[in-house]
Every structure is written in C-alpha cells, then in structure tokens.
C-alpha cells in the first residue's frame, strides 16, 4: 500500500468524527486534500456542514467538492479541525508548515474545540526536528530576524542552518499572507514547547510551525491498519 492510500485511510477514519451541523476547519496538504474530497462525497449524499479553509488551495478544493464555506469572522468557534502534519511526537506536539500554510492552519486550529491530525505512520517521531522547522517571517529586516532566531536556538540548546524557502520557479516562496518562510534544519528539538515560546517573542517572526497542545487525536495509517493516539 502506497503513502497516498495510507493517507486516504487516515482521512476516512477522521471522517467518522464528523456529524451533520458541524463547523469544520479544513487543513492544507496532500493528506488534508483526501479528507476534503471524502467530505465532499458525504456532502453530496446529504451531510450538512460548513468549513473554514486554511489556505487558498484548500478553498479551491472545497468549492470544487461542493462544501459550503465560511470564515472565522462569521463564526466564533469551530467544532473540529482535521489537518495533516509533517511530524508528530508522543505528546501530539507537531511540526507543520511544509506546505506553507502554517499561519492560517494555526489560527484555525486554535479556534477549534478539537483538532484531529491525520497522517501515515512515517510522520510519527520520538522527538521533533528531523523535518525542517518552518518559521514564517516578515521580509523587512530579515537579517535581524534571523540573528534573533539563531540566538533563540542557542538559548534553547538547538542549532542548525536557516534557509529561505524557494518556490518551484526559483523565486522566494510567498505565503497566502504575503510573508516569507525560513526553514530551520535543526535535526532534534529537545524542548519543543520552550522553543515555541522563544520564537513567538521575536519581532519579525509572524508564526512558527511548532503546534504545541493543539492536537487532540492523531490517526496514523500504516501497514497494520490505523493507530489512534489521544493526547493525555
């Protein structure tokens, strides 16, 4: 079974948590796309939900699938967000942002009563950091922001190269919010909550890809089936 089939299995399992009348956060990325497509099939069969997309790509996918959309200006809370992750640790802390939508993803997750993370089991790690940590930044003063990030790394006992993300065309990648992303190749993050707090204090850092305490449940699809892990 290939990774796309595993992702679709995890998405299908998360769909079991969706009930008619729910307000849903719709994640971004290849795994979340499977959830949006499966949700769209249920909507066409009569399920009544309304969604808040976490990116322009997801917005287009949801419209294509016939899912009614709203915004966080129009609803105060969401019942559930379903999204993927680049890494998941045993405390259900996450690294997200490989697709560049981390800011909107975190806003939507924080506005939700529950967040379900869906992934294939290769995303499960004992310690976060193997996947480069995305840090969304303001382009102005980038050098000063990078130096402040490096000081935060030293204080938190991590180190690694900072790389400004490029798009497929070779130009700097620009997020839906008009910002840039610096990917930090750290290898291992011993204290993810501490690093998250430090990065959040830096002027010029819009958001970072450490999602601490937001995920309620992880659904990990592997060759032996789906493992459901709940945050303690």
UniProtKB/TrEMBL annotation:
<dbReference type="InterPro" id="IPR050262">
    <property type="entry name" value="Ribose-5P_isomerase"/>
</dbReference>
<comment type="function">
    <text>Catalyzes the reversible conversion of ribose-5-phosphate to ribulose 5-phosphate.</text>
</comment>
<comment type="pathway">
    <text>Carbohydrate degradation; pentose phosphate pathway; D-ribose 5-phosphate from D-ribulose 5-phosphate (non-oxidative stage): step 1/1.</text>
</comment>
<protein>
    <recommendedName>
        <fullName>Ribose-5-phosphate isomerase A</fullName>
        <ecNumber>5.3.1.6</ecNumber>
    </recommendedName>
</protein>
<feature type="binding site">
    <location>
        <position position="123"/>
    </location>
    <ligand>
        <name>substrate</name>
    </ligand>
</feature>
<comment type="subunit">
    <text>Homodimer.</text>
</comment>
<comment type="similarity">
    <text>Belongs to the ribose 5-phosphate isomerase family.</text>
</comment>
<dbReference type="Pfam" id="PF06026">
    <property type="entry name" value="Rib_5-P_isom_A"/>
</dbReference>
<dbReference type="InterPro" id="IPR004788">
    <property type="entry name" value="Ribose5P_isomerase_type_A"/>
</dbReference>
<dbReference type="GO" id="GO:0009052">
    <property type="term" value="P:pentose-phosphate shunt, non-oxidative branch"/>
</dbReference>
<dbReference type="InterPro" id="IPR037171">
    <property type="entry name" value="NagB/RpiA_transferase-like"/>
</dbReference>
<dbReference type="InterPro" id="IPR020672">
    <property type="entry name" value="Ribose5P_isomerase_typA_subgr"/>
</dbReference>
<feature type="binding site">
    <location>
        <begin position="96"/>
        <end position="99"/>
    </location>
    <ligand>
        <name>substrate</name>
    </ligand>
</feature>
<keyword id="KW-0413">Isomerase</keyword>
<dbReference type="GO" id="GO:0004751">
    <property type="term" value="F:ribose-5-phosphate isomerase activity"/>
</dbReference>
<feature type="binding site">
    <location>
        <begin position="28"/>
        <end position="31"/>
    </location>
    <ligand>
        <name>substrate</name>
    </ligand>
</feature>
<feature type="binding site">
    <location>
        <begin position="83"/>
        <end position="86"/>
    </location>
    <ligand>
        <name>substrate</name>
    </ligand>
</feature>
<feature type="active site" description="Proton acceptor">
    <location>
        <position position="105"/>
    </location>
</feature>
């Amino acid at each position: 079974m290939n990774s796309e089939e595993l992702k679709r299995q995890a998405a299908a399992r998360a769909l079991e948590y969706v009930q008619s009348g729910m307000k849903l956060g719709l994640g971004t990325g290849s795994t979340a796309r499977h959830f949006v497509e499966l949700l769209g099939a249920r909507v066409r069969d009569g399920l009544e939900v309304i969604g808040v997309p976490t990116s322009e790509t997801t917005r287009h996918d949801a419209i294509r699938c016939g899912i009614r959309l709203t915004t966080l200006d129009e609803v105060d809370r969401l019942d559930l967000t379903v999204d993927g992750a680049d890494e998941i640790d045993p405390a259900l802390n996450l690294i997200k942002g490989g697709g560049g939508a981390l800011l909107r993803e975190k806003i939507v997750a924080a506005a939700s009563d529950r967040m379900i993370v869906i992934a294939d089991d290769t995303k499960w790690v004992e310690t976060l950091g193997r996947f480069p940590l995305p840090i969304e930044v303001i382009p102005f003063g980038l050098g000063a922001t990078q130096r402040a990030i490096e000081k935060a790394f030293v204080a938190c006992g991590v180190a690694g190269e900072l790389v400004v993300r490029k798009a497929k065309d070779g130009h700097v990648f620009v997020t839906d919010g008009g910002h840039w992303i610096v990917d930090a190749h750290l290898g291992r993050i011993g204290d993810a909550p501490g690093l998250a707090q430090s990065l959040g204090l830096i002027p010029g850092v819009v958001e970072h890809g450490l999602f601490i305490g937001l995920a309620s449940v992880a659904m990990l699809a592997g060759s032996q089936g789906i493992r459901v892990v709940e945050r303690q």
